[in-house]
Each structure stands twice: as C-alpha cells, then as structure tokens.
TrEMBL record:
Its cofactor is Zn(2+). The gene is ADH1. The keyword Oxidoreductase applies. It is an enzyme of class 1 (oxidoreductase). CDD domains: CAD3. Belongs to the zinc-containing alcohol dehydrogenase family. Its EC number is 1.1.1.1. Signal peptide: none annotated. It holds the Pfam family ADH_zinc_N. It comes from the Eukaryota. This is alcohol dehydrogenase. Residues 19-350 form the Enoyl reductase (ER) domain.
Length: 354
C-alpha cells in the first residue's frame, strides 16, 4: 500500500480548562512513537464519560488542554518502527484503554484496565475527537474491512463495557437481567448483547421515545419508566416471570438513585454490576437483605483486549444493531447539551469530516 498523505494540521474539539467549553479548531497532527500507530479517525462515538471529563466529575484529573473521545473508528495511516502486526490501511479503533504497561501484576493477568500506568484516551492522553489520533499498537482494536465504521464506533467503549459487565454478572442464558439506563448509549448496546447471550431483558429508563426504542427496536421484554413508576422496586420485581426479581442488574445510569435501589429488587443469589459513574455517588444496600438474599455487588470497568475482540466479533457477526445518529465533529457541544438533559436515545456518532 502506498503511504497515505498525512496533513500537518487537522480539525479537533479541544477543551482548555475543566468545565469547558469545547472549542472546534485546527491543531497539529502528532507523529506516532515507536510502539504507536496514527489512526485517521472517521467516526467517533460520544460517551457520557466524555462529558464527565469536561465537567471534572471524577476524583482523577484529565490532561489539559484535552482532546476528548474514546470510541474512535478509522484507518491506520502511520506506525512506529516497533509495530509489526498492524498495517497501514488496516481498520482500527481507539478505545478508552489507549495503552498499558503490559508488565505489571494486572497486565500479566489480562486486567489491563487496572494497570496503574494505563493511558486513558480522551482523558490522560488525547482521544478521538480529532481527525488523527495516536494509540499504542498493542491496544488498538482490530476492526475488519467489512465493518461499517460509524456503527462500529460505539462498540469501542459502550459495547466492550456492557459485554464485559454482562460476563461479570454471571447471568446465564434463559435468565433475566435488568438494565438500568437502558435508553442511553451503554444501555442500548447492553440490550443487544444480552439478547445475543440468550438473556431476557427488563429495560429501565424514562420517556416514550426510549420506551419505544427498547421494546420495539431492541427487543426488551419489559420496560419500567423510573420517573412514572410509584414503586420502582415492586415494578421491576413484577416484571420478572415469577416476581422474585432479575438474576442480574446492570447499572449504566448516570444518577445515584438506582445505585441505592438495585440491591432491593435483585433476585436472591443475584448480582448487581455497577458500571455507570455518576459524580460523587455512593452505593447503598440494606445489610439485612444483602445477607439473607446472598447478593453480590461488584464494579465492572471497560474490558481487556480479549473482551474487546469478543465484543467486536459479536458486532461483526451482525448480532449487535443499536440505534445511533451521525452528526459532524463540529457539533459536539450540541450533543453534550442533549446529553445533559437526558434526551439522547441510543448514541451520537461524530463524522470527523464535517
Ligand atoms: P447516557 O447519557 O447515554 O445514558 C444514561 C442513561 O441513564 C440515560 O438514558 C438516562 O435517562 C438514564 N438514567 C438517568 N437516571 C436514571 C434512573 N434513575 N434510572 C434509570 N435510568 C436513568 O450515558 P452512557 O454513555 O451510556 O454512560 C453511562 C454511564 O456509564 C456514564 O456515567 C459513563 O461515564 C459510564 N461508563 C462507565 C464505563 C465503565 O467502564 N464502567 C464505561 C463507559 C461509560
Ligand atoms: Zn466510554
Ligand atoms: Zn500494567
């Protein structure tokens, strides 16, 4: 393959300080280091994590100035001299885990997200809200040429994360999983992965648009509207066939409240998996019920390279069809405005050429 032409300047969305605003402007294209690749990002999903990064919601500082984004799908245009297994012209994806040391205790046992030296795309290193993004070759997601890059983008964080979360839940085919925040980016993909894994889904979110999407497009068995329900705990339990509650709960909401309810409606022996990261939130569970119902409560954080490959393979096989809307990279602020109001059903994907 002939060497693609790489411009010196590119368009990007940049924040100068925590709290924003994001600024659409031209910045320099960087050169990849010896173990890195440069990816011409075609599409990038917008994850709620990107908004947490702008707002400084978490007790972990971002780099500044910062280019956000960690669901970047594109084409490899340059590689460092140590990179042997990624070719120029390959389709590749930038994930949240941009790189890790590959040598620590956690990396050795394939828990790369727990690596103390992990580099986080769009957080501690610049991410995919730019036309040319760098990632460590060992960690870039391998995409195949038959993939639609716009549809693949949300899989790179949302898909991998919920696939891992469902595995961590221990739920088995035939069992029921409640997905809390089902109408959002992670939630919509979680419903598709759950279905592909043979699970029955209770979708929990609010509003008619999300209800319709969950029941008609994503095949959820039941929908509980948390804003309309007078008793969410009772309604979720009633949505299971025997009334005893779901075997697993995937918390992907951006609000603290459901993190304090899930232990009450999960089934005895069931598992509550915490994935969403609302600012300053705390978990709460009644000790009595936790003990006598033998409940497990755990956290789940993105996925390792193998989880990523598996999640992408579900997508490649046509099992994951979650709704997304494409707008230009220049429109990121308007996507954040909708996200703040909880108005996004599914995912927004940015086209970096606009
Ligand atoms: P999103 O904004 O697309 O979706 C969040 C959904 O939660 C919305 O549909 C909203 O209506 C719903 N919601 C709000 N309050 C609720 C309630 N009380 N009950 C039920 N639903 C409620 O966000 P997203 O991009 O899907 O991200 C969700 C969260 O997951 C964010 O906090 C993000 O940072 C986090 N996240 C975590 C990981 C991880 O590895 N653990 C990875 C990616 C994202
Ligand atoms: Zn994300
Ligand atoms: Zn490590």
């Amino acid at each position: 393959m002939s060497q693609p032409e790489i411009p010196k300047k590119q368009w990007a969305q940049v924040i100068q300080k925590t709290g924003g605003p994001v600024e659409y402007k031209e910045i320099d294209v960087q050169q990849p280091g010896p173990d890195e690749v440069l990816i011409n990002i075609k599409f990038s999903g917008v994850c709620h994590t990107d908004l947490h990064a702008v707002n400084g919601d978490w007790p972990l500082p971002t780099k500044l100035p910062l280019v956000g984004g960690h669901e970047g799908a594109g084409v490899v245009v340059a590689r460092g001299e140590l990179v042997k297994d990624v070719e120029i012209g390959d389709y590749a994806g930038v994930k949240w885990i941009n790189g890790s040391c590959l040598a620590c205790d956690f990396c050795q046992q394939a828990d790369e997200p727990l690596c103390p030296k992990a580099l986080l795309s769009g957080y501690t290193v610049d991410g995919s809200f730019q036309q040319y993004c760098i990632a460590k070759a060992a960690h870039v997601a391998r995409l195949t040429k038959d993939m639609d890059l716009a549809a693949a983008a949300p899989v790179l964080c949302a898909g991998i994360t919920v696939y891992k979360g469902l595995k961590e839940s221990g739920a088995r085919p035939g069992q029921t999983v409640a997905i809390v925040g089902a109408g959002g980016g992670l939630g919509s993909l979680a419903q598709q992965y759950a279905k592909a894994m043979g699970l029955r889904v209770i979708a929990i979110d609010t509003g008619d648009e999300k209800k319709k999407m969950c029941l008609e497009q994503l095949d959820a068995a039941e929908f509980v509207d948390f804003a309309k329900s007078e008793n969410v705990v009772k309604d979720v339990q009633a949505a299971t066939e025997d009334g005893l509650g779901p075997h697993a709960v995937l918390l992907v909401a951006v609000n603290e409240k459901p993190f304090q309810q899930a232990a009450e409606y999960v089934r005895p022996r069931g598992t509550v998996v915490c994935i969403g990261l609302p600012a300053g939130a705390y978990l709460r569970a009644p000790v009595f019920e936790t003990v006598i119902k033998m409940i497990t409560i755990r956290g789940s954080y993105v996925g390792n390279r193998k989880d990523s490959a598996e999640a992408l393979d579900f997508f490649r096989r046509g099992l994951i069809k979650a709704p997304f809307k494409v707008v230009g990279l220049s429109e990121l602020q308007s996507v954040y405005d909708k996200m703040v109001k909880g108005e996004i059903a599914g995912r927004y994907v940015l086209d970096t050429s606009k």
